[in-house]
Amino acid sequence: MNLTGKTAIVTGGNGGIGLAIAKRLVEEGANVTITGRSEDKLQSALKELNSDHVLALKTDVSKFDEVKQLVDKTKEKFGEIDIYVNNAGLMKSSRVTDGDVKSWDNMIDTNIKGILYGVHHVVSDMKERGSGHIINTTSVSAHEVTKQSTVYSATKIAALTIGQGLEKELAHTGVRVTSISPGMVDTRLAENVKSDRKKLEARDIANAVIYALTQPDYVNVNEIIVRPV
């Protein structure tokens, strides 16, 4: 499937995996809106992407109304939304015994509610048109819980479950759903995490996204797990 002229939103697209996904989408000819909560990082990403087919909008995906504005402004600029990438995420203090309630709330609001809000604002139009693709960035932490990752893993398991249920809800509508579960990726989010393996590059995850998006329209790639060797 050719992505030329398609319109995509990539939340958390101002750095790391999100920026890499936005780059690959631009390379494939798509119009792309990137989001983030830092205006400075958004402007830096916009310069790096260096394309007239990119829009940068400051957005906190945990805020329902801000996500609605994101969708509305993207439609005003580029037209109907074909691809929605739920990539924005937080990984904070996750041990239950540490009792960092504020970190838990932030992760739940961004990693779970952020996905639901995004889907809510695009799925009706996608169903009406009979086409569209929702990508949720989850994590291998949705499959393997450690003593350091309890709450974070819980939010990513929720993200994975949302994708699994949504795929069934949207069966036979023409709207596809894919969950991408990255292993350790060399981004700011994981810069303090030690690993005995070479970390993945953000572009490796972006390539997995493009793979899912460019399958024939009768093929729904439900889940991809990408790990370091």
From TrEMBL:
A Pfam family this chain is assigned to: adh_short
- UniProt GO molecular function: oxidoreductase activity, acting on the CH-OH group of donors, NAD or NADP as acceptor
Query: What are the alphabetically sorted keywords of the record?
Result: Oxidoreductase
What InterPro entries is this protein classified in? NAD(P)-bd_dom_sf (IPR036291), SDR_fam (IPR002347)
User: What EC number(s) are associated with this protein in UniProt?
Assistant: 1.-.-.-
**Top-level enzyme category:** oxidoreductase
**Does the record carry Oxidoreductase as a key word?**
yes
Family membership noted in the UniProt record: Belongs to the short-chain dehydrogenases/reductases (SDR) family.
Protein name in UniProt: SDR family oxidoreductase
| Species assigned in the record | Nosocomiicoccus massiliensis
